[in-house]
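Database export, one record per block. Field names are fixed; values are copied verbatim from the stored entry.
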Amino acid sequence: MDNHVESPDLYRMKALRKDYNGRTVLHIGALTINRGEIMAVVGPSGSGKSTLLRLLNFLEPASAGELHFDGRAMPADPPLATRRKVTTVFQRPQLLNRSVSANVAFGLRLRGSVADNGRVHQTLERVGMTALAQSTTRTLSGGECQRVALARALVLQPEVLLLDEPTANLDPYNVNLIESLIGEQHLLYNASIVLVTHNVFQARRLAQRCALLLDGKLIEVAPTETFFEAPTDARVAAFVGGQMVY
């Protein structure tokens, strides 16, 4: 009998470390990500943001330390049922060279679900891609491809949504649309969302809490307003002020 009680903490990390070829690229002393919040992780390129996401979506095991998810310590290879609670949208999504609709339905098939045409259509409506449902992905713009990737994630109605630079290099129209969808997913479905971005303005618009990663280390975590208006670390103040921080 499973007596598991839902934890208020979605993720909990302690002395979490990831090494590549003997080099430590991420070392987090302690970090908690709350259930039902949007947390933004900001920092310059190479600061460890994407590596953190790869640990959070169980693509790779940590080299050392503890990672708890939903109140349970995670083994190096978590069970499939746990993996399926987490969905990731990558900065450069890999789409099938098929129709937009087929790409969104593929997300359901990957999870072992029967493709529900009504659910696929509804999700395409949400991302403004209904008119292009039968277009092949190779004919789409960068912003349209990113919306298809987001639709492929949203159709799964995930408990946890991880976003890796979801609007990098997109035009203002697509940035606004994708940000609106992120906020909507959080509001309507109480989704837990971790947003990795170098865009501090986006972090401020969307997140309840923000964290700065620098050289693989967690510098500060705080409620968004505190993070931007009264940070305790001078490096955070410099970063949110637009200065180059390394």
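Remark 1: The two ends are 50 Å apart (CA to CA).
Remark 2: The mean pLDDT is 91.
End of record.
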